[in-house]
Amino acid sequence: MRSLPFRRPSPGTTLAFVALTAALSGTAIALPGTNSVDSGDIKNKQVKRTDLANNAVTSSKVKDGSLRSKDFKAGQLPAGPKGDKGDKGSPGVPGTSIFPSSIPSGTTVAGGWGGRYIAPQLAGNNTYLISTSFPVKAPAPLSDATVNVAPNAAAGDPDPTCTGSSDNPTAPSGKVCIYISRTDNAGVTGFRLTNPGVSGSAPGDAYGFIVRILDAGTVGPTATTNAEGTWAYTAP
User: Fold this and answer.
1) How far is CA 141 from the centre of its chain?
2) Please, are residues 117 and 148 in contact by the beta-carbon 8 Å criterion?
3) SS3 state of residue 147
4) Distance CA 187, CA 229 (A)
5) Three-class secondary structure of residue 158 per DSSP
6) Residue 221 lies in a domain
7) What single DSSP character describes residue 24?
8) Please, how many CA atoms are within 13 Å of residue 87, restricted to the half-sphere of its CB?
9) Distances in Å between the alpha carbon of 193 and those of 8, 196, 235?
10) Number of domains forming the structure of the chain
11) Distance (Å, rounded) from C-alpha 118 to C-alpha 186?
């Protein structure tokens, strides 16, 4: 058999074989120079928390002002000094009505009225009076002639000067206009207040008015009388 010629391996091949053997065996290889690891010897983002011993990083190793609040868990940072107590605000203005003492001249106020009642056993024998109050007194007392119902089949005292509607109640100067939105077995009229027990103008009729609901004649134990709507008043 013919023998193969033997060649001595080159230095580069020998060094590569030694390095491979060391890598496979886990043997550490000393770094040249000062035998230390500097930033250039570490691949970026390769050092992890598990590579550091407990308490290895101390205050002297951290650059001043480099840490932020997000780098700490809740409660790790001490509380800062308590701030000065703020000044107490001034008290508010005492509350008042929408008007100081009476409804200003030319001003219109509006509201709602209504009721549902059991009809009487005898026709035309049931009357209900609904007292309605202004937010403050009117500048002049009302009379029966100035409290009326807008034209309607159920109106007992229709006033053609009441030209608004139940959705948009209006009134001429010095008058109350009552608007009917729904009725059942009822007629409706308007009056000034009578003996309201309020001190003031003769005898308190500047504080509101009365809506009168009168049954229209249907009787029986299951019959009802009801009416409802809105009103408006304009101060003279």
Assistant:
1) 41
2) no
3) strand
4) 13
5) strand
6) yes
7) H
8) 3
9) 132, 6, 17
10) 1
11) 11
Q: Report the relative pairing of strands 147-149 and 176-184 from DSSP bridges.
A: parallel
Beta-carbon-side half-sphere exposure of residue 190 (alpha carbons within 13 Å): 33
Half-sphere CA count of 224, side-chain side, radius 13 A: 7
- Residue appearing with tokens 């206009």: 177
* 74 found inside a domain: no
Q: Are 141 and 135 in contact (CB under 8 A)?
A: no
Q: How far is CA 126 from CA 72, 115, 136, 216, 218, in A?
A: 81, 13, 31, 9, 11
Domain of 218 in residue numbering reads as 108-234
123 part of a folded domain: yes
Give, for all 236 residues of the chain, the pLDDT tens digit. Answer: 455 555 555 555 555 555 555 555 554 445 555 556 666 667 776 777 776 777 767 777 777 767 777 667 776 777 777 777 777 766 656 555 577 789 999 999 999 999 988 877 676 677 889 999 999 999 998 999 999 999 999 999 999 999 999 999 999 999 999 999 999 999 999 999 876 555 555 557 899 999 999 888 888 777 888 999 999 999 99
Query: Order of strands across the sheet with 176-184?
Result: 108-118, 224-234, 176-184, 147-149
AA letter at 147: V
Alpha-carbon distance of 144 to 147, in angstroms, equals: 5
Has residue 133 been placed in a domain?
yes
DSSP assignment letter at 14: H
Say what the pLDDT of residue 93 is. Answer: 60
At 69, list the tokens: 């609040």
Question: How confident is the model at residue 224, as a pLDDT?
Answer: 86
- In this predicted structure, what is the pLDDT of residue 27? 47
Q: Using CB atoms within 10 A of its CB, is residue 8 exposed (0-12), middle (13-18) or buried (19+)?
A: exposed
Please tell me the pTM assigned to this model. 0.57
